[in-house]
Each structure stands twice: as C-alpha cells, then as structure tokens.
Write a structure and sequence with these properties.
This protein has about 400 residues and is α+β, with helices and mostly antiparallel strands. The chain has helices at about 1-55, 65-125, 130-135, 140-215, 220-250, 260-270, and strands spanning about 285-290, 290-295, 305, 310-315, 315-320, 325-330, 340-345, 345-355, 355, 365, 370-375, 385-390, 395. It has two domains: about 1-215; about 225-400, Distorted Sandwich (Glucose Permease (Domain IIA)), CATH 2.70.70.10. The protein is built from six helices and 13 strands. The strands form three sheets. Strands 1, 4, 6, 7, 8, 10, 12 and 13 form an eight-stranded antiparallel sheet that branches. Strands 5-11-9 form a three-stranded antiparallel sheet, with no helix packed on it. A two-stranded antiparallel ribbon has the order 2-3. Strand 12 (about 385-390) and strand 13 form a beta hairpin. The longest helix has about 80 residues, at about 140-215. Mean pLDDT is about 80; it is low at about 1-5.
C-alpha cells in the first residue's frame, strides 16, 4: 500500500511538471505575439517622429504637427501597455519556473526516499554480501536463476533511481538558470517602462505647449476650419450626386442586363471579404485624422466631423487604388486639388487632394494600381491624402478595413 501511494505521488509530480511545460509553451507564444505588436508600434513611433521633425521645420506651428504629436502620444501609451503585457507574461513565466523547481525538488525528495528504501531492503536481504551463498544454497537451478535475476533487477532499479536523480538535479540547474534570465528580463522591462513613461511626459508637455501657441491664432484656425468644411461639403455633394445618378441608371437598365447585376453583387461580396486586409493607398503614410466626430485639437469647444481618414505623408507619393473597380468620377474641388471616385460594386472609395491623376472616367483598374500622385508644394514638408469609403449612401470607417 505504501508503495502504491509513493507511485501515485511520483505520477502527480510528473504530471505537474508536464503541465508546467505546456503552460510555458503557451506563455512563450504569447510573448512572441506581444513582441511583434510592440515592434509594429515602435516602427509607427519612428515614422511619426520623422513626420513631426519635418513639420517642425516649418516657420509656424501647424495643426498637422499637433495632430502628429497627439498621434505619437497615443502610440506611446499603446507601447507602454504592450510593455505592461510583456511584463505580465514574463512574471507568469517566473511563477511557472518557480513552481517547476519546487516540483522537481519534491521529486528529488521522493527519489531519495525510494533509494534509501532500496538500500535498506538490500541490506536486510544480504544482497550485497551473500549473493553467491544464496545462489549456491538454492534447492534447484530454477530457484538459483530466479535469485540471480532478482538481484539483477534490483541493480537495474537502483541505477534508474540514480539516473533520475541526476537528471532531476540537472533540470533544476537548467530551470534556475532560466529563472534568473527571466528575472533579468523583468528588470529590463521595468526600466524600459520607466524610460518610455519619462518620454511620454515630455511629449505631453510638448503637445500642450504647441496647443497653447496655436491657440493664440484662433481666428485663423476658425477660418481654416470653415474652409475645410466647405471642401468636405463639396466633396460630399459630388459623392451623393454620383450615387443618385447611378441609382437612377440602375433602375432604367434593370431589365437590360442581368449579367451586369450579377457581376456587381460578386464584386461587392469580394470587396467585403477583404475587410481588415487592405493596405493604405500610399506607401509611406500615417493616419492622423480619424473617422467620425471628435473635438478639435485646439478649439476644444468645437466638434469636427470626418467622413473618412486623413493620411499624412512627408515625401512626394504615388496613390494606389485599394481594390479593383471602375473609375466613376474625377473632380476638381477648390482648395482640395483633385479627387478620384472608384466603384467596387456597392462600395465606393474616394481619394481626395491629389495633385496628379493618372486614370480617366470609365477606366477599369486592378487592385493597388497607381491612380495618381500627391506632391508636396513649395515650402511644405508634409501633405495629406483624404480617403473615404462608402457603402452605397453610407460612410464606413476606413480604419476597420485597413491592415493593422
């Protein structure tokens, strides 16, 4: 009975160790995933820092610079959150390793007890000194053979116990080394967080100084905001006019071609399947103006509405269609350069503030085909592409459609 409970203990210890291994494997994957996310955030911070430096070369503090600085602060907060998550995972790993070391320590204790029991048994049975006497005193050959075989099994069992003991000792040394490594990682994460929090405070102070500086130019800001509203209204009117025209044409041509309608639905479904997979329509850009209603970064009492997103670039940039479709309209809006409207079944993508357009109305285009360019104007360090996405007569949040 005692032997049975001893074996049960060993099995439970082994199960505990195996479970710890499994948990560590999961933990390792989570840490790798967090590192990838952190790397992406750090890349975005570096890109936006470059944009901020370029806008700071301008003679006056701009609204774009303030938006970029706010974006950097948001990214810094995300980075600190990622560091906290990584710290939690490392802490879990430390806990697992400590538990494993404790389990191995208990396993070694059981092995020692088992070895002592075998030694006592061997001494009582005189296996060490009287083996030959026991063999020769056997009643027959069969009994002698069984005694020899039993002795050999005892020796093998003793060797297994010694081997398990050494293996467990080595495992403890290995886990202790890894534990110390994890503790060092934890210390590094804590220092990294302190550094990032310090930089975040500097960025927040810098942001507030810029806001205060630009706040002195309220009249100009209000005038710029009114101009932007007019540009947005004109673009919105053109989009709705196009949607209404196409809806009327669809009713007129409904009985003429069923195949066109089928292709239209198929393209819509194909487009919808790509939610969260689209690249930005420019190669190197940063989303600085978000979709929907938000408070003006300087005029705190004023709410601004954005039907799409604003993407800031720092070099002359080509503009690409996010998906295959047909160019339905190219328009010139005063104060906003050119805009291209592309139909993708039920969906419509809008690319505004282009300085050059390389496509024409009625042209079929492929995914990520170049449709135009945005060129920086003399004396400017940055430019903005305004992008919208419509599902028939309703706007969609483009950020949900872009690859993270």
């Amino acid at each position: 009975m005692r032997e049975f409970f001893c074996n049960v203990k060993v099995v439970l210890i082994l199960f505990s160790i195996l479970f710890s291994f499994f948990q560590l494997e999961l933990n390792a994957q989570q840490i790798d995933d967090l590192k990838e996310k952190k790397k992406k955030i750090e890349k975005d911070i570096n890109e936006i820092s470059t944009l901020i430096q370029k806008t700071e070369k301008e003679s006056t503090t701009s609204l774009t610079n303030i938006k970029l600085t706010k974006k950097k602060i948001d990214l810094k907060n995300s980075l600190i959150k990622q560091i906290d998550d990584e710290t939690d995972e490392v802490q879990k790993r430390i806990t697992f390793r400590k538990n494993k070391i404790d389990s191995l320590g208990y396993k070694i204790k059981l092995i020692k007890e088992e070895y002592r029991r075998i030694i006592v048994f061997s001494q009582k049975s005189n296996l060490n000194n009287n083996l030959l006497m026991q063999i020769f005193s056997a009643n027959d050959f069969n009994q002698a053979y069984k005694r020899l075989k039993f002795y050999q099994q005892v020796l093998i069992y003793k060797k297994q116990i010694v081997s398990n003991y050494r293996k467990s000792i080595n495992e403890i040394k290995d886990e202790t080394s890894k534990l110390n490594e994890n503790i060092n990682q934890l210390t590094q994460k804590q220092k990294e967080k302190e550094r990032e929090v310090g930089e975040l405070k500097k960025d927040e102070l810098n942001y507030q100084l810029k806001v205060n500086l630009l706040n002195k130019k309220k009249k100009q800001l209000v005038a710029d905001l009114e101009e932007q509203k007019q540009i947005s209204k004109k673009l919105n009117d053109e989009i709705r006019k196009l949607i209404e025209e196409e809806a009327r044409k669809e009713i007129e041509n409904k009985t003429k071609s069923k195949s066109v309608s089928i292709n239209y639905v198929a393209l819509s479904n194909n487009f919808k399947e790509n939610i969260g997979k689209f690249n930005l329509p420019v190669l190197n850009g940063m989303v600085t103006g978000v979709y929907g209603e938000s408070f003006h970064p300087v005029l705190k009492e004023v709410k601004v509405k954005n039907n799409g997103v604003d993407i800031t670039i720092s070099t002359n940039s080509q503009v690409f269609a996010i998906f295959k479709g047909e160019v339905r309209k190219v328009i010139k809006i005063m104060g906003s350069n050119l805009a291209v409207l592309i139909r993708h079944g039920n969906y419509l993508s809008v690319y505004s503030n282009l300085t050059v357009v390389n496509v024409s109305v009625g042209q079929d285009i492929t995914s990520y085909q170049k449709i135009g360019e945005i060129n920086l104007q003399k004396g400017e360090e940055t430019a903005i592409l305004h992008f919208e996405l419509w599902n028939e007569n309703k706007t969609e949040d483009p950020s949900k459609w872009f690859r993270k």
